[in-house]
């Protein structure tokens, strides 16, 4: 399925600022980049690179005081693997691939070391594998209000359990945390999300099950098979659309994703969706 | 119903230490003290007093280096009011007595200001009043493991929600917190608890409902109509059996409560129990 | 010294709301109320009362949907005791009056139980008594930025140590916490503050030293001898200008304090100031 | 300088357990492994591997119920670079190598996002570079008590600031956190530490300065030029000597490091020490 994604981000730069952007979709087997275009006003691109471990793609910009405008668009062909949840089991620790192991560790916003008792008490009865992670997502969905502005940059999964409220970032962090607490590797994913309303960048998570990474969205706001992955990492501390060293204030922001051919149907609550093996 | 309560507490005193003890049952209409006896070895009693607001009874001891042994026993006649939960409603804020209002505030171990969304989401469907507080206790009981040693002196209700484990003190703090979060006044109570196994001091809580304070024990470990109240206050920060200014290490400890006439039946899960109006 | 204090508070009431206000100065020996006047628009006063333990004065209002406007003014004669800090020592725990003891306990926003090592390490070298508490205030002043909007209703002393920023409420909480951590009773005080710029309600704290409560303001924003005390309590959880049960949004707010005779000189950094013995 | 390192670790295994061990020194230019020997009793080695990003070396063991004994020893040649702190500056964000960037992010135990104001207030006056990080270490050393048992597995840098106490792990976390808060990349390092008394595994940290990773030890307990690096990562969540999936209880533990030729002098407080460029 083909998708056109784009974003337009404006900033007020107060003093010369170094900016790192991670807006470009990753490239891998089931997510093929057909075309892309980046345009900068009020800043100059210094470097463009792909991180080794994650495959996240960045560009580095130096912006002088004034307005900075970043416009990016790309055409992507997405070919998600659709499977039967019942057949997707949990991988025994002994059999986990090396590069997956770090995603068992607690991280800044995902204190899985504190939540083992909680997680096993709440979800231990569900069959291990895809169904258990779905149970985690159902519980998060039922116990957390999606309220824009209810959390901030330092909000962690432990806060979200207490607050019972958050945004997509918080839903993803809580899902990751509860998975890791039960020895299921999980990682944070930022994405262009088809049918997300209102349009915005989205955050979901992936759990490593049956030998692949499967997508989960506890907010139930987007079609799992219509997610164009941008960045992935331990949690939002590693995955952000933009980082600044200097003084910048965010201004206008537009995000869009369309599908000329119709796009994901989005009614996949009974199926498992995976984009990447690693 | 008559009860004999007693305790024996030993301490190693390293340097001259001032000790405050709150071991004596409170005195009020439905809890009448028939007789009591205090014996000290290795320390001298300086003062004995009753706090104005709470009615908690203290004695102050100065202990020189060496062994300190405190032995206390009392005979108490308990006459709890037994009522029908269905008839005990919530008191509207407008009608709350003045001295009850402070028990709506958050306190050290009961951060009710953080848990409003949590509480209303979880318990908002239950009818206001005694039944809603019982729903709180049932939830705590079902979601928290009673594990001696799983918490410590700085553990708060927010920790207990995360840890899903605690002791009687933690169960009481969580109950108080969830009540206050829903505008139900609640306070911490320490007690001699009939049938508690193994025998020990116990902690429960009271909620102000239908014009009186009703007892609740989310641990379900003791008979509600067999609780001889010692201290009450906002939370464990205000209610402790002993406080030391100096250097003391706790040693032997024995607590006992017996009833010559047979004591509380303890099978009162379908009834409401209250000791005090204020 | 005579002061005129006043405030004007406006609210949008969405549904019938019960409001408790604590805007009136307390009455005691050194703070004499000469005259006062309360006016309500859009609500009706139900009750007016003084809390037993604290002496805080409240009025209770029921407001229907619409605008609520509260206007209060009073004339107060203030006669603070001015003393020499060097002569004001710490009271030994053995000698503390009963009603002072609760102000040694940790409370919602003042987790003094966590900060004993911190406090003794930082301030243990200073002579016990007024000078040690002044050292605490100096440290807070030097290590905390006063930034309006940098904290919120759930910010505690532990947060303020981490954030190094806060408002008067946070400065007071941190002072209280560090005092209690060193066995110095301390309590929270709300006040009309002469010379505070811009005019607003203010929060400071009192420490019990040499047999009286002495005033401290780690923000150094107001004259210690020009504080007209409104409420006092364990911390801001017990002392608030207004509490609402219902739905109200704060609107306009004006606070003023003037002194016909000139008022406090405010240059009292080398002297100790006390308003109340209890 | 040549070092002999060894450790002997015993475990009681209750049920079949998968164990990951990271006990072997890393291999890189200035740390050359001359010889090593691993011996297992009560378990069988399944795999031995080196993580791509970190170069950390692991072996995976499956242990049946019973005793598991792990004995490891190695000969290492260490050639640390010794430099003049005054000449080692901070690298501008624009010039940071890609693989260094993730070490600017907050992590599980290092909430640098919360401590920017704290760090710049406390250390902003020191010249950027090695001297500023040394100021961080001096402050940690002067404000934190090294107390075995004072912290536990979930203790983070924010806790350590509050507690003013910890062990080597906590000193390292706090150092890392304060560096990252000031945009200095920093990472956690586990090591065999020459002259550490009593002998044990040690934890220190590295900061990226002047184009290399420099070693820092805020505990001042070991010779910086006598550290044989085992693992490195974001914080202790990524770097642990052993991880278990199953049921294992730690028993005996012996760690040793000797130097046939005399070893590090350890009196290097006025010099900068670096082992690795990346």
UniProtKB/TrEMBL annotation, chains A, B, C, D:
Domain called Transglutaminase-like: residue spans: 160-220
Record-linked Pfam families: Bact_transglu_N_2 (PF21295), Transglut_core (PF01841)
Alphabetical list of InterPro entries matching this protein: Bact_transglu_N_2, Papain-like_cys_pep_sf, Transglutaminase-like
Signal peptide boundaries: none
Family annotation (Gene3D superfamilies): 2.60.40.2250, 3.10.620.30
Protein name, as recorded: Transglutaminase
Natural source organism: Skermanella stibiiresistens SB22
């Amino acid at each position: 399925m083909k998708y056109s994604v784009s974003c337009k981000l404006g900033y007020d730069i107060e003093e010369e600022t170094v900016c790192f952007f991670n807006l470009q979709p990753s490239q891998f087997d089931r997510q093929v980049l057909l075309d892309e275009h980046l345009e900068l006003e009020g800043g100059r691109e210094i470097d463009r690179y792909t991180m080794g471990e994650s495959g996240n793609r960045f560009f580095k910009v130096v912006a002088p005081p004034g307005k900075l405008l970043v416009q990016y668009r790309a055409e992507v062909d997405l070919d998600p693997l659709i499977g039967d949840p019942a057949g997707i089991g949990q991988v025994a620790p002994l059999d986990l691939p090396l590069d997956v192991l770090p995603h068992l560790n607690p991280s800044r916003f995902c204190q899985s070391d504190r939540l083992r008792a909680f997680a096993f008490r709440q979800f231990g009865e569900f069959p291990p594998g895809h169904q258990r992670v779905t149970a985690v997502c159902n519980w998060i969905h039922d116990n957390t209000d999606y309220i824009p502005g209810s959390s901030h940059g330092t909000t962690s999964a432990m806060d979200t359990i207490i607050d019972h409220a958050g945004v997509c970032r918080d839903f993803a962090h809580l899902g990751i945390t509860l998975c890791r607490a039960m020895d299921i590797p999980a990682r944070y994913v930022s994405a262009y999300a088809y049918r997300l309303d209102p349009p915005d960048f989205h955050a979901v998570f992936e759990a490593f099950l049956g030998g692949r990474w499967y997508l989960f969205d506890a907010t139930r706001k987007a079609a799992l098979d219509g997610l164009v992955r941008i960045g992935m990492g331990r949690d939002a501390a590693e995955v952000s659309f933009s980082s600044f060293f200097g003084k910048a204030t965010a201004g206008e922001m537009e995000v869009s994703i369309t599908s000329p051919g119709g796009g994901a149907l989005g009614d996949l609550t009974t199926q498992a969706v995976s984009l990447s093996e690693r």
